[in-house]
Design brief:
Helix 1 packs antiparallel against helix 6, helix 2 packs antiparallel against helix 3 and helix 2 runs antiparallel to helix 7. The relative contact order is 0.15. It is elongated, with a radius of gyration of 17 Å. The protein is an all-alpha fold.
């Protein structure tokens, strides 16, 4: 019977392979949601709150992964969190919450997101690729490579925040 680690790893590898096939098939960024009706949300405010909460949760997840991979060198313990990271740190997960006009009061988002949609979406593609490298390093239990990859994930997040988020 396969272990939980083997199942998690094989599941994340399959998800990664499928994501690569999709990204190769689609060169353009997903369309930006113009209205709430084009999104899974019931209001613009709900979309803003959701994306803020999800990004904070992603930040907490990354802190835990730093502890797992860099401090403790425990790839097996990190496997479920790595799978969650790979699933959530994607265009598909976040972009539907960036409805046109959901910047300004109550939002940390800058209007440049919608003016530079292709570049903004490309930031998530970059993040997905960096996360894939991190997952691969962890699966191989190469902690030196995982530490470098973890740093690259952080830099990807920070570069997007500098360009598209008010502090």
């Amino acid at each position: 019977m396969p272990s939980l680690w083997a199942l998690t790893v094989s599941g994340s590898i399959a998800a990664h392979a499928m994501a690569e096939e999709i990204s190769v098939a689609e060169d353009a960024a997903p369309p930006m949601p113009q209205t709430v009706e084009e999104s899974p949300f019931t209001s613009e405010r709900e979309a803003v709150i959701w994306r803020q909460d999800e990004l904070k949760e992603l930040e907490r997840l990354l802190r835990q992964l730093r502890f797992d991979l860099v401090n403790n060198q425990d790839a097996r313990g990190a496997a479920p969190r790595l799978a969650t990271l790979q699933e959530q740190a994607t265009q598909a997960h976040f972009l539907p919450a960036f409805i046109v006009g959901t910047h300004g009061r109550g939002s940390d988002a800058r209007p440049e997101i919608w003016e530079e949609w292709e570049d903004f979406a490309a930031g998530f593609t970059d993040l997905e690729q960096k996360v894939a490298v991190l997952v691969d390093a962890a699966e191989q239990e190469d902690y030196r490579a995982a530490t470098r990859a973890f740093s690259d994930v952080g830099l990807s997040c920070k570069s997007c925040h500098r360009a598209y988020r008010y502090n």
